[in-house]
Amino acid sequence: MQNTNEEDIMLEDNNLLENLDKFIEETSNLKSHINSLNLIQEHCNSLASSLNLHIVKMSALSQEMENVQEKNKNLDLEIRNTTLLYDELKKLLIVLEIKDEHFEALHSLNTPISKIERALDILTSVSLENYTLDLALEKKELIQTQLKSFFKKFSTFFATILASPTPTGELIIHTDLYKTITPYKEILKYFKKYENYTLISSVYTTFSKDTYNHELSYQLKIITKVINHDMDIKEAFDILFQSIFLVYRAENFFVKRVILPEEDCLEMLEFIFRDFNNALVNGIKKIYKNAPVTCLNALKSVIEKYRPKNSEKIFKNKNNFEIQDKESLNKSEKEEINESYKIIFGKLILEVESFYEELKQDFIQKERSQYEYEGRKKGLIRTINILKKSEIEEINSSLLSNVIESLSNYPPKKYSDIVNKRILCYQILNSTESNSFLIDSDKIRLNEFEDKVKDEFEKETIGYVFKDEEYEKRIKNIIKEIGELKIVKNEFKKICFENSDNKNEIENIFKTTEY
C-alpha cells in the first residue's frame, strides 16, 4: 500500500517537472514577442508625431487658402462692379451723345420713313430710369418730349389717312388703303411699345366698321334692284358672300401683319364686323319680303356652299357659336378655324343659316294660312307658282301635303266639282314634274293621290255622261270646262270611247266642239 503511494507521488512530480519545462520554454518565446511589440509601439509613436506635425501644417495651409479665396472673391466683386459701372457709363455716354439728326427726324412726317424708323429705334431703346445726374434727366425729358410730340402728330396723320378715302359703295378689299398704311407698320410697332396704342387701333377699327357697314348696305340695295329686274338673285347672293369672305380674309391678314403684328386679331376683327351680321340679316329680311321664294333659294345655295364642313363639332351647338375646346378637335377641324377670318365667317354663315330656318318656317306657315284664306282654286294656283320655283324640299313637301290634304277632303257636290278636282290634280302634278327638289316619298304620295283622283274621275264620268240620251250635250260642256288641258281632255275622251257603243259619234263630238 505504501509502495503504491510512493509511486503516485513520483508520477505527480514527474508531471510537474514536465509542465515546468514547457512553461520555461513558452516564456522564452513570449519574451521574443514582447520585444517585437515594443518595436512596433516605438514605430507607432514615431508615426503619431509625424501625423500631428502634418495636421498642424495642413491647418495653417487651409487658413492661408481661405484668406486667398476671400481676397479673390472681393477682387471678383470689385471687377464686376467696375465692369457694370463701365457699361452704364458707356450707355450713358451713348445716350448723351445721341445725334441731333435723330431728334430732327421726328420733327416732320415728311422725313423719309427709314430715318424716322432709325430715330425711333434709338430713342425708344434709351433707358435713363436709374440715373439721377442732371444731364441724364435733361436728356430723358428731351427724348420723352420729342417722342410724345411725334406720336401725337402721327396719330393725327393716321386719322387723316383713314378720313381721305371716299367709300365707293361696293363691298371691296381696301387694297389702296392697305398700301398707304403698310409702309408705316414699323412706326406702328414703336407706337405700340411706347405710347397708348388704343387711340390708333380704335381709330382704325371704327373707320373699318363704318366703312364696311356702308358698303354692305349698298350691296344689299343692289340685290334688291336685281330682284326688281328679274335677274339671278342666286348669283347675286353668291357674289355677296364671296365678297364678304374675301373682305374678312384680307382684313385678317392686314390687321395681323400691320395693325396687330404677332397677336391674335380675332377680337379686333369681331369689333370691326360686330354690326355686320345684324345688318346682313336685316338686309336679307327686306329682300325676303320682296321675293321670298327666290331669297330662300339663294340662301340655301350660299349656306350649302360656304357652311363650315365640321360646324357641329367646331361650335358648341346650333344656337351658340362659341368654339369648342380646340384640344378635342382633329386636324381637319382645327384647320377650319386656324385663322380668325375663318372663325368669324363661319359664325356669320351659321347665324344666316339660323335666320334662314326661321324664314323657312315663317314662309310655310304664311303660305298655309294664305291657301286657306284664298280658297282652294286660287290657293292652288299660288302653290303651283311656288312649287315651280322652290328649290327647298321642306317647303315643297309641306305645301304639297297641304294641297293633297285639301283636295282629299274636298267633297264634290256636283260633277263639275269632280272635273275641277281632276284639273287641279293635273296642274299640281304638272308643276312638280320639272322640280328636282322633291323627296321620293312626296313623289310617291303625289302619284298615289293622282291615281285615286283619276279613278274617281273615271267612275263619276261614266255615271254622269251616259246616264241618259243627252250625253252629247254633257260631253261638249265638259270639253269646254277642261279647256286646253290636253292630257285631261284625252283622258276624258278615252273614258267616253271605252264606254260608248258609237265611237264614231264620240270622235265627231270631240272634233266639232270648240273650247
From TrEMBL:
Record flagged with keyword Coiled coil: yes
Gene Ontology MF terms: phosphatidylinositol-4,5-bisphosphate binding
Tree of life domain: Eukaryota
Keywords recorded for this protein, A-Z: Coiled coil
One Gene Ontology term from the biological process aspect of the record: Golgi to plasma membrane transport
Coiled coil: 51-85
UniProt key word Coiled coil: yes
InterPro entries hit by this protein: Sec3_CC (IPR019160)
GO annotations of cellular component type: exocyst; plasma membrane
Domain Exocyst complex component Sec3 coiled-coil: 19-111
Signal peptide per UniProt: none
PANTHER family hit by this protein: EXOCYST COMPLEX COMPONENT 1 ISOFORM X1, SEC3/SYNTAXIN-RELATED
Identification of the protein by name: Exocyst complex component Sec3 coiled-coil domain-containing protein
Organism annotation: Hamiltosporidium magnivora
Lineage per the UniProt record: Eukaryota, Fungi, Fungi incertae sedis, Microsporidia, Dubosqiidae
